[in-house]
Amino acid sequence: MALTSSRVRAVNAVFETGSFAAAARRLGVSQPAVAQLVRDLEAEFAVALFDRHGQTLIATPLCRRLYAATSRMQAIEADALAILQQRDELTGGELRIGLGNAMPGMALIAAFRNLYPKIQINIEIGSWSAIMAAVVDQRVDVAVLPEVPQDNRFRREPCVQQRVVAICHPVHELSRESRVSIAGLVQYPLVFRTRDSATQRAVDRALRAVNLRATPAIIVNTREGMLEAVANRLGVGFVWEHGSSRIDRIAKVAIAEIETESPEYIFSLAGKRGKLVELFYLARSLSRSAEGAAMLAAP
């Protein structure tokens, strides 16, 4: 089913103007073309978007809901097109990015680099508290982290939902399980992160929820240290589910007490409004789905 950009524009123009004729004048196309786009959409999804009263079209409740969603989409599209048209102007500059996990931040950086290959990217990777401090101290311009507080100092926008999972070596007996309980995990040697880690705070909350305490066999201060410890069979560890693209010598197992997903945010200081920061937020918007790129290319 095709919710194309041209159909969305036609429906929204009719919604805003109240008639096919007025919508056609706004869009610079013929009245029959606008009417056909609206009718095609109604027919394809078997819905009614407008009630006809003479020459006036009244939006149905469904159409009002659709407009509320797609008008935001059109605003993003307009911003995207405006910035993409300025692409050739961006022949230099530097963007400093902080990451708590390699992913999804590296995927966002890849999307940004595809659009603006001449911009130099400097990346700082560290613990949750280190990256928070880097943003506050302006060592980085923008960052990607979970558990960013709702604070007036920050501008934050969610980019992915994920949860903490257990990780073990592929030959470990846990690797055959799709889910394990916290009580089941504490039977094995565990690898913990330091207390300034958002990953470790999620694990600690899960332990407290079932009144358990665990003494780790190993404590590491970085995500890479966690991955290497597990890959070398030193214990069972914990990572954000989509925090790394690494798959060698690592098996992921869901934790029964950590079912709820949490948002990972792209964020910056609220006053940090430079062009490159805005472009990074935009790259996040465009990379959220293939449909975003398809809409920009649609007639």
UniProtKB/TrEMBL annotation:
Signal peptide: none annotated. Gene3D superfamilies: 3.40.190.290, Winged helix-like DNA-binding domain superfamily/Winged helix DNA-binding domain. Keywords: DNA-binding, Transcription, Transcription regulation. PROSITE patterns: HTH_LYSR. Residues 3-60 form the HTH lysR-type domain. The keyword Transcription applies. NodD regulates the expression of the nodABCFE genes which encode other nodulation proteins. NodD is also a negative regulator of its own expression. Binds flavonoids as inducers. Belongs to the LysR transcriptional regulatory family. This is LysR family transcriptional regulator. It comes from Bradyrhizobium diversitatis. The lineage of its organism: Bacteria, Pseudomonadati, Pseudomonadota, Alphaproteobacteria, Hyphomicrobiales.
